[in-house]
Amino acid sequence: MIRIFTLLFCCAALFNVNEAAAQTVKKKVYKKTASKTVKAKKPVAKVQPPKVLPTIDKSVKIKITTDSGSMIVKLYDSTPLHRDNFIKLVNEKFYDSLMFHRVIKDFMVQGGDPNSKNAPAGTMLGNGGDYMARIPAEFRTTLFHKRGVLAAARDNNPEKASSACQFYIVQGKKYTDEELTMMEPRMNRKFTAAERLAYRTAGGTPFLDQNYTVYGEVISGMNVIDKIASTEKDQGDRPRTDIRMKMEVVK
Description:
Mean pLDDT: 87
Oligomer: single chain
Largest sheet: 8 strands, antiparallel
Number of helices: 5
Structural class: alpha+beta
Radius of gyration: 41 Å
Strand order of the largest sheet: 3-4-6-5-7-2-1-8
Low-confidence stretches: 1-18, 24-35
Shape: globular
Number of strands: 8
Strand content: 15-25%
């Protein structure tokens, strides 16, 4: 009996040991199995801020070289008739050797009269180009006569259509808010906040707004306009020393 009890005891002890081992094995297996079933978390991708690309100005630009220096003029796409006509004349070398034939300090400098190419000193200029078809007016409420703008000259035709070749560049002067307010009834319009700011700080010729088509602006070399406007001139506002020009389209 002792042997049987001992055997049973041993068997029981062995059974308990095996059961404990089995449970341990089960736990280990369970843990291994469980660890395999858990999906690894993917790292959260950092959100990159959108790249801000520089704005590319694709407007056509014209280099105007004069006896007083060079400037770059940008043409507005919102006035396509004037833009395309000007580009055409520049590419045809129409303006090469013509003069700035009329200059008025604190107002503007004017050129583009084909009669100025070979005009002797003292000749009155400003009527050339009448044989060319006028360009219909392209008035835009967003375009006004701030300092440096390129605009089309014209005669007194009722449609306010532009000369096909003569142009002017505004030098202008600064105006106070009071002066601008006094102009409004005569012009039958109200100046916007942007217009008032430009006329107060940079200057221009506000009394020409919506009467002459603005179709570009000087973006480099405005000091050349100041120099031309200050030159000595005769009674007809023609410079006593000829100031000629040459133009080309640039990128």
